[in-house]
Design goal:
single chain; 1112 residues; alpha/beta; MutS, DNA mismatch repair protein, domain I; Nucleotidyltransferase, domain 5; 37 helices; DNA-binding; ATP-binding; DNA mismatch repair protein; mismatched DNA binding
């Protein structure tokens, strides 16, 4: 593909470059605020313009800061006819910076400096503060459009006569600004339609169908507004729940209630005026938008879609008299719809979840959407009365935003969505009929996004509820202006609950929480199993390993295959470390690929931006090309440097054309499509020949026009016999034929074909008809080239996204390799220096007991702690040493029972993950599901006590556990009376040991259970050993798990260790001994025998009668 000489487009006409406006020197009007009423609500009408000054330009009806001052240079880009022909950027040296007649907003950096106090915040607005803090400074505003016109930053001063000046820095410039008089906003002047808003259908807020996304603006109010106010409220009326960042010139403005949000959450300053008004520079958009979105706000970005010059041209061509430039809502940002990895700020997946529920049955349709990678998981499932699968979905996916019908959900589901999710999750009830339509209509609307007109197989085979959830998701994406960017390239996969897919071990929501699989109780990852195994160096690898740990493998064949790959990577240390070092340098390719598609769609490509947005997009694209090129070379290099890879899985992943896609030809095309070095330097793309037909045609026409002009010049020199004749450019008059006066005199003058256009001393410049025609052809071709060049980057992005599946498959392989390397690092050496072993799996026997043998095992998370030495323990279930599948665990308080139970489960999960286990040996029969009943908690908001929640979780275990399951229960029954709890614990233990016969660790302080199951072959007893010093009455915990029954719980000793007052401990010790003596007396033995009989018959009333008969 041939290279060509780069010809830079005109900056003023190319969206990929900076776009400034023509200079107009004007001054803005000021607004003075009346005194505020403390604690009064903020008003929300946009300020009306004050009278313009006489010297303001008549055509200054828009908001154009003309001259950008940086330090001591004035940079002007102008389209005026008096400028030079090429519209070049002029840099004029100024003797010193001077304040411009424009609004100079204060940056956050300025406000944080010690010498500049924040002049006015929301607290100042609502409640008068100390006089020393009531300081106001005003900065003149730039000329604004007639509707949202010249605003002036203002701040409170301690007195109206204060005249001391304060310097504020902005973009390297200081301006001396006098303090303004103390003023405030009149908060009682809002119109009634804002004080008591109605939605677009006239419903008030107390109406259950009220739509908070809209507001009805009366026609009479609109008629009284200026054109700009009308433009603002037209957009705001359909986005009433959105904080609008409204672009005026190079600033984003916030008005009314939105301005108060900006003041409180962002530390912005209120400007002078009779309504709240704040703003910030364009360059601060990402930072401020990220802050508000992470705090739960919905952000709308409104951009100018034309310049003032384009406004004039539109008025001239259409005959209209519009006084405001066109503006459009270009993007809506919410917590669940962020697509920019920089704005997301972390590698974890931020899911948007849509939930639909059937009427009359417990069936759900769900859609999980990751907008940053354009991935959709859709499916439907039946659930139990406790909504176990729904709770598991919420715990494993951890959505940041949830969509659900405002009406139609059961009370249980509504309670779960409102109360079980973390408080910072955004909940969006859907009220509009268009948001929740029928499945047929949803399917038809989704089909429109695919050029072939055919739905993806996963979508077409989904049930009605799943289609409804997907339809709601797509509609919401449409409201956020993301549908066209995400849906057409979406990757659709079927969602199955963990317990419905036999390929994976099922971990329900309670287990994920109790075992701290992906996060600890405080919401962080410290101490979690994810922290133990996650050594990934790429963001896409970190996301993948989280998916793995939530859904461990269940089939021994798959686990063995992954373990073999881990073994290879343990041996290939050098090749592995080199691969990881190179992978660490790659950007987040998974997320950036979807951004490239968004750029190709170009929803806001016509927006007038002061920052070089095109260059920023190009930088992202070049980063992707660099990353994919590096990735394509990493794979063969990894394979070449490896010496003993035997794993079929690893061989496949490292073989180009097999597991890893061959991207060579595709990447070579884009590398030759343009000069990458020049594009990186200049910030725009000039396509090579054959890449863009529109640009090629324009280039060809330009060459033809230039050749024709050169032919005219050559012919003229020959006719006039003067080789010094040349073309010169003057202003916009190009290719003027410059002829010396001496030549003209020698020839006795020129013919009438030569038309004089300009002159200089000794020379006269002419046009001829041929030159005019050739120049016209040249100018037209140049405009055509500029137009083609302005869209070439977008077209190249679209072409790149035509192979979206190829790029994403490459990223998927890189993520899997990163995860395997992470497991190899985990397996290679434990953080505590202890041994790690490869787990061995025993094929399940139909009638035989399931096996679990862990020798000298350690808690994975505690191996990362350097504070104490952890004592390893054996856990033997279903083996020759302990044939019983049910283990009754006793031991003193603080003896380590709960730690042992969790440690056992975590080691099993690690083995199913395909990772080595912190133990000397690990032998087990595959586990299909892990159940946990650990800890005590209640659901106050749902009206459920600790004991109720405990029994509800136990019921789930008894309902779903199989012979291949692993169950741990910790102190079941402690939430009620001793004997009620004992009876329930006995009944549950007997059902698990004799009916289900699954591997169970049952920790309890009810020692009567040990006596009851003492001769039961299906139950074995183990306890956490301790040692009592009778002389000092102190307990030493040995933390060893040994066969037998603990002689006591040593609760009194623990109470003493905890620091209870001595008199309280002494009384408790006396009462404990008195009760023990009574039970062990002859009468007590009789009672014990009767109690055992009552327990066997589950006679709760009989147990209560026995207790009443005891006299202690």
């Amino acid at each position: 593909m041939a290279k060509r000489t780069k010809s830079a487009p005109s900056p003023a006409n190319t969206p990929t470059l900076h776009r400034f406006f023509s200079p107009v020197q004007t001054s803005g009007a000021k607004y003075d605020r009346p005194n505020s009423v403390a604690g009064a609500p903020a008003s929300a009408a946009t300020p009306e313009p004050a009278a313009r000054k006489e010297n303001q330009a008549a055509d200054d009806d828009d908001d154009v800061p003309i001259t950008q001052v940086k330090k001591s240079k004035r940079i002007i880009v102008s389209d005026d006819e008096d400028d030079n022909d090429n519209d070049v950027v002029q840099i004029d040296e100024l003797p010193s910076p001077r304040p411009l007649k424009k609004r100079t907003p204060l940056s956050d950096e300025t406000l944080s400096t010690p010498s500049h106090k924040r002049v006015r915040g929301l607290d100042d607005f609502r409640t008068p503060s100390k006089p020393a803090q009531d300081l106001l400074s005003s900065v003149k505003a730039s000329p604004a459009l007639a509707s949202l016109d010249s605003m002036t930053f203002s701040t409170l001063s301690s007195s109206a006569s204060a005249s001391r000046k304060v310097d504020f820095a902005d973009n390297g410039r200081k301006s001396s600004v006098p303090r303004a008089a103390k003023s405030a906003v009149d908060t009682d002047s809002r119109p009634s339609w804002q004080v008591n808003p109605r939605d677009k259908k006239g419903r008030t807020r107390d109406d259950p169908n009220y739509d908070p996304t809209t507001i009805m603006v009366p026609t009479a109010a609109l008629d009284k507004m200026s054109p700009g106010q009308r433009q603002y409220w037209t957009i705001k009326s359909t986005n009433y729940d959105t904080v609008l960042f409204f672009k005026i010139g190079k600033f984003y403005e916030l008005y009314d209630d939105d301005a108060l949000v900006g003041v409180k959450e962002l530390g912005l300053l209120l400007m002078k005026g009779d309504r709240p008004h704040a703003g910030f520079p364009e360059r601060c958009f990402d930072r401020h938008a990220e802050t508000l979105v992470n705090r739960g706000f919905k952000i709308g970005r409104v951009e100018q879609m034309e310049t003032p010059n384009e406004l004039k041209e539109r008025n001239q061509s259409t005959g209209s008299k519009s006084k405001v430039v066109n503006r459009e809502l270009c993007s809506v940002l919410t917590k669940g719809t962020l697509v920019d990895s920089n704005m997301i700020g972390h590698p974890n997946t931020s899911y948007l979840l849509a939930v639909c529920e059937s009427k009359g049955s417990v069936e759900y349709g769900i859609c999980l959407c990751d907008t940053s990678t354009a991935q959709f998981q859709i499916g439907s499932f039946n659930d139990d009365s406790q909504r176990t699968r729904l709770r598991t979905l919420l715990a494993s996916a951890a959505p940041v935003e949830v969509l659900y019908p405002a009406q139609g959900l059961s009370s249980v589901t509504s309670s779960i969505l409102k109360k079980d999710l973390p408080h910072d999750v955004i909940r969006n009830p859907l009220r509009n009929a268009a948001e929740l339509t029928d499945s047929v209509t949803a399917s038809e609307k989704i089909q429109e996004y695919f050029p072939s007109g055919k739905l993806p197989d996963i979508v077409s085979s989904s049930g009605d509820l799943a289609l409804l959830a997907l339809g709601a998701t797509v509609f919401y994406l449409k409201r956020c202006l993301l549908d066209q960017e995400i849906v057409p390239i979406g990757t659709f996969v079927h969602y199955d609950p963990n317990d419905m897919d036999p390929r994976f071990m099922a971990l329900d929501g309670q287990t994920l929480t109790n075992l701290e699989i992906v996060q600890n109780s405080e919401g962080g990852t410290q101490g979690s199993l994810l922290e133990f195994v996650n050594h990934c160096v790429s963001p896409f690898g970190s996301r993948r390993i989280r998916e793995w740990i939530i859904r461990p493998l269940a089939r021994p064949k798959d686990i063995t295959c992954r373990l073999d790959a881990v073994d290879d990577l343990i041996r290939e240390t050098s090749a592995r470390d080199g691969f990881r070092a190179a992978l660490r340098k790659l950007p987040d390719l998974g997320r950036i690929l979807s951004r490239i598609h968004a750029y190709s769609f170009g929803r806001d490509s016509k927006a007038v931006m002061y920052e070089n947005v095109g260059a920023a997009k190009l930088k992202v694209f070049l980063g992707v090309l660099d990353g994919l090129r590096e990735a394509s070379s990493l794979i063969p290099k990894f394979l070449d440097e490896s010496t003993s890879i035997v794993s079929p899985l690893l061989k496949s992943l490292l073989t180009t054309g097999d597991g890893f896609p061959d991207m060579t030809e595709k990447l070579r095309y884009f590398e030759n499509a343009f000069d990458i070095a020049a594009a990186r330097r200049d910030g725009f793309i000039v396509p090579a020949e054959g890449v863009d037909s529109d640009y090629d045609d324009a280039e060809r026409e330009i060459r033809n026009a230039e050749e024709r002009l050169q032919a005219i010049l050559k012919e003229t020199r020959k006719d006039l016999r003067d080789s010094s004749i040349k073309f010169v450019d003057k202003n916009r008059e190009r290719y003027q034929l410059e002829i010396s006066e001496s030549t003209i005199s020698r020839l006795g003058g020129l013919s009438d074909d030569y038309e004089q256009v300009s002159q200089r001393k000794g020379f006269i410049r002419y046009y001829t008809a041929d030159i005019k025609d050739a120049v016209f052809q040249f100018d037209r071709a140049t405009e055509k080239r500029t137009s083609a060049l302005s869209g070439v980057m977008r077209r190249l992005f679209a072409q790149f996204c035509g192979d979206f599946a190829l790029w994403t498959s490459a990223v998927s392989v890189l993520a899997e390799l990163d995860c395997l390397c992470s497991l190899a690092l985990t397996s290679e050496a434990a953080p505590d220096g202890g041994v790690m072993c490869r787990p061995e799996f025993v094929d399940p026997v139909e009638e035989g007991a399931a096996v679990l043998s862990l020798r000298r095992a350690r808690h994975p998370s505690l191996t990362m702690s350097s504070n104490a030495t952890f004592i390893p323990n054996d856990t033997i279930v279903g083996c020759e040493e302990n044939p019983a599948a049910f283990v009754l665990v006793t031991g003193p308080n603080m003896g380590g029972k709960s730690t042992l139970l969790r440690q056992t489960c975590l080691c099993v999960i690690l083995s199913h993950l395909g990772c080595y286990v912190p133990a000397e040996s690990c032998l087990l029969t595959p586990v299909d599901r892990i159940f946990t009943r650990v800890g005590a908690c209640d659901r106050i908001l749902a009206g459920q006590s600790t004991f109720y929640v405990e029994l509800e979780e136990t019921a789930t275990i008894l309902r779903h556990a199989t012979r291949r399951s692993l169950v741990i229960l910790d102190e079941l029954g402690r939430g009620t009376s001793t004997f009620d709890g004992t009876a329930i614990a006995y009944a549950v233990a007997r059902h698990l040991s004799h009916e289900i016969r699954c591997r169970t660790l049952f920790a309890t302080h009810y020692h009567v259970l040990s006596e009851e199951f003492a001769e039961d072959e299906a139950v074995s007893a183990y306890y956490m050993a301790s040692q009592l010093d009778t002389t000092t009455n102190t307990v030493t915990f040995l933390y060893k798990f040994v066969p037998g029954v603990c002689p006591g719980s040593f609760g009194i000793n623990v109470a003493k260790m905890a620091g209870l007052p001595d008199d309280v401990v002494s009384l408790a010790e006396a009462m404990a001994k008195q009760f023990e003596d009574a039970v062990t007396s002859a009468h007590g033995k009789s009672v014990a025998m009767q109690l055992r009989r009552c327990l066997k018959q589950s006679d709760v009333e009989g147990i209560r009668s026995l207790i009443k008969g005891l006299r202690v």
